[in-house]
């Protein structure tokens, strides 16, 4: 099972998350590309560490929304969104190549991630950008989402992910961060949820129902309080149960 985390989401003098600590635990790194967070220096530093440690690098693309941390939905033409995604992807891949690695997958961030679960037009824009740059890129997203469906139609590799630190609704969608209980921060609870996801393909929703979530990758957000400890505990529990940790791409 792959463990991924959102990294590099600081900007200039502003820090976000413990990137060094997270890079000691994950097998895949979703690196912010400058639109919701991240800057060239941060991007290069993470790519260099990832290359040295054999961690797979993914482009964590988002809406052009530094002030809102990419968590505000933006209505924009599909062609413009595709160009924005292409810009971010190319920027990170250029830096990754200099660092001795390259971008292997694309994972949208925040509001864009949630929008393309059901919005076929914006989902297609993300896929179009990835196809134009490198059709071998894997698209990482929510199981059953439009972006994974459209990517598969166009022959791009896809991988479904699940979240250890986020609550789910019974329909498989994530609970809005504006609602109480949307974020799970207890290490043992997060690890138990991840073990349940890996061994049964299910997670218990906020409504108390079992939800089918078959995933190739598990995510804990880098800005979740105690993210490093959460991921360490997840890795410990999965290893204890004989589940190897390896990148999906």
Q: Which sheet architecture does the biggest sheet show?
A: 7 strands, parallel, barrel
**Mean pLDDT across all residues, rounded?**
96
The strands making up the biggest β-sheet line up spatially as 1-2-3-4-5-6-9
Rg estimate, integer Å: 17 Å
In DSSP terms, counting alpha (H) and pi (I) runs of 4 or more, how many helices?
8
Specify the overall morphology: globular
What is the count of β-strands? 9
Catalogue the unreliable spans. none
| Helix content, binned percent | 40-55%
Cα separation of the termini: 11 Å
| Alpha-beta classification | alpha/beta
Which band does the percent of strand residues land in? 15-25%
Secondary-structure element pattern, one letter each: EHEHEHEHHEHEHEEEH
Give a brief description.
The protein is an alpha/beta fold and 249 residues long. It has helices at 19-23, 40-53, 78-99, 110-118, 120-133, 146-153, 187-200, 227-240, and strands at residues 2-7, 28-32, 56-60, 103-106, 138-141, 158-163, 202-204, 210-212, 217-219.
Annotate the secondary structure layout.
Elements: E1 2-7, H1 19-23, E2 28-32, H2 40-53, E3 56-60, H3 78-99, E4 103-106, H4 110-118, H5 120-133, E5 138-141, H6 146-153, E6 158-163, H7 187-200, E7 202-204, E8 210-212, E9 217-219, H8 227-240
Parallel strand pairs: 1-2, 1-9, 2-3, 3-4, 4-5, 5-6, 6-9
Antiparallel strand pairs: 7-8
Helix pairs in contact: 2-3, 3-5, 4-5, 5-6, 7-8
């Amino acid at each position: 099972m792959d463990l991924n985390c959102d990294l590099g989401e600081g900007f200039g003098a502003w820090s976000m998350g413990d990137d060094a600590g997270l890079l000691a635990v994950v097998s895949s790194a979703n690196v912010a590309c400058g639109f919701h967070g991240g800057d060239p220096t941060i991007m290069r530093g993470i790519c260099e560490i990832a290359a040295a440690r054999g961690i797979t690098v993914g482009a964590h693309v988002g809406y052009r929304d530094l002030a809102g941390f990419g968590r505000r939905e933006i209505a924009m033409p599909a062609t413009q969104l595709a160009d924005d995604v292409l810009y971010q992807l190319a920027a990170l891949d250029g830096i990754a190549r200099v660092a001795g690695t390259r971008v292997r997958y694309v994972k949208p961030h925040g509001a864009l991630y949630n929008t393309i679960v059901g919005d076929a037009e914006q989902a297609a824009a993300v896929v179009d950008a990835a196809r134009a740059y490198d059709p071998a890129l894997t698209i990482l997203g929510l199981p059953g989402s439009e972006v994974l469906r459209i990517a598969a139609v166009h022959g791009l590799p896809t991988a479904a992910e699940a979240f250890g630190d986020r609550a789910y609704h019974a329909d498989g969608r994530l609970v809005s961060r504006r609602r109480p209980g949307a974020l799970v921060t207890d290490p043992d609870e997060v690890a138990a949820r991840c073990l349940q996801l890996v061994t049964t393909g299910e997670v218990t929703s906020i409504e108390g129902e079992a939800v089918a979530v078959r995933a190739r990758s598990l995510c804990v957000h880098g800005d979740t309080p105690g993210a490093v400890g959460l991921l360490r505990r997840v890795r410990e529990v999965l290893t204890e149960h004989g589940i190897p940790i390896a990148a999906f791409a």
